[in-house]
Amino acid sequence: MATTVESLAAQSAPATLKNYINGQWAASTSNERLVVPNPATEAPLAYVPLSNAADVQAAVDAARAAAYEWGEMPPPERAGYLFKLREAMLDNREALAKLVTTENGKVLSDATGEVRRGIEVVDFACGAPTLLMGQNLDQVSRGIDSEMVRFPVGVVAGITPFNFPFMVPMWMLPLAIACGNSFILKPSERTPLSSQRIIEICEEAGIPAGVVGLVHGAVETVTGLITNPGVDAISFVGSERVARIVYETAAKSGKRVQALGGAKNHIIAMPDAVLDQSVPNIAESAFGNAGQRCLAGSVLTLVGEARERMLPRLLEHADTIKMGFGLDAGVSLGPVIRGEARERIHTLVDQGVAAGAKMLRDGRGTGPEKGYFVGPTLLEIAPTSPLAREEVFGPVLSILYAKDLDEALRLMAETNEYGNAASIYTASGSAAREFKRKATSGMLGVNVGVAAPMAFFPFSGRRKSFFGDLHATGRDGVEFYTTKKVITARWF
Ligand code: NAD
Fold it and tell me: Is this model's pTM higher than 0.85 or not?
């Protein structure tokens, strides 16, 4: 049966999810499991098994067995499966968005956007025959020709975070299989339901047994995958701490790795920023998805008169934000993922205040009684504050002041070791150009608060936000999921 909000509600009791191995849904052989609640209501939705080494081995064996034939299939034929997957995903997009809202907490409009952005990667992967073309040079030397040909890497494992339970698995799966690899997904144990549905849709689209697999779980499951000799490549997205562990461990096991880590994104607002559009856009960057985006604006540097122009408007805007369950009408801010996440955010805010931050708007303790809510919170901070440096991952916006763009760029570089995203709000082309050249992050927004590249471009975080060489999506994704051979030939 399809995993939907309706099918979950119709169950007499929450069920334990199954793994998908060799085209079959199979119970994990582990007895350990965690409850998956709706973070807006705390009502249990399902249990997720914490799969063990035997489950991982079975998934890897099935993926290895399927890899050869899938990799030998002509790319246009493989693309045929991607077109079917795209249609099936589009047919399910509304149900998918409702599922994302229910397990993650983000409001329906955000979930709808997430689903669209995920399907966009299938659009891109449908171009596999073009994307997989190699290169050649005839007559590289007299009577000798050279060509570069791409091959699949083999078995790829994808390990994903809770905050984009549909989109992040979709950064990986469509492109990995379009390139001829088999793919095993280990979704976040906090949001496993969207992945469950992704794999069901792959099954409905007729993707052959073993080409996609699903193993639920947590640390032990990940360790099993990143050290397994049958896995050739690891795509990881999550916190900086775990990205570093996964990068080092998988690389030591001889695998190619791309590990996308945490973030601390700065926004600079210049005195000439266009207020009516900038204020809601900055608020959306900071508070949308309850601040649980790796591209969320977390520090806002107001330059010169931007302080007087923008701050009162931002505070007014924050007061209009209504918290609740994201499927309910009029709600613009959902909960954070768990009670522990809320406690962590409260503690970080406390530490900021203890270090001298001035509270402008305290959202803690506000919102519905049930659910893990934190309201929009704004503080004035000093550059030395922990709130200038540490990822908060909640709806908290810390404000710095600078006299000019030079000082704002210097503050950004000095306080922030991450390098995911940064944005500038300005009406000046020359300020935007200066920002583009000097900002230290890999994804930049000009009057755009969540500068998420479309699937045709790489998701190009850097510094502490990315470990590896080739990013997710875009041509980087194709390079990551293929290996090259260069043939030099002459004929006697
Ligand atoms: P997380 O690091 O806690 O978990 C990510 C995955 O790693 C999960 O599947 C989890 O089961 C697994 N995991 C957790 N601890 C592990 C360990 N010790 N060893 C091996 N595996 C382990 O991340 P999260 O809380 O789910 O997601 C939020 C984080 O992800 C934030 O830091 C956010 O910035 C980051 N993120 C980054 C990007 C990006 O593109 N750079 C995108 C989305 C999220």
Answer: yes
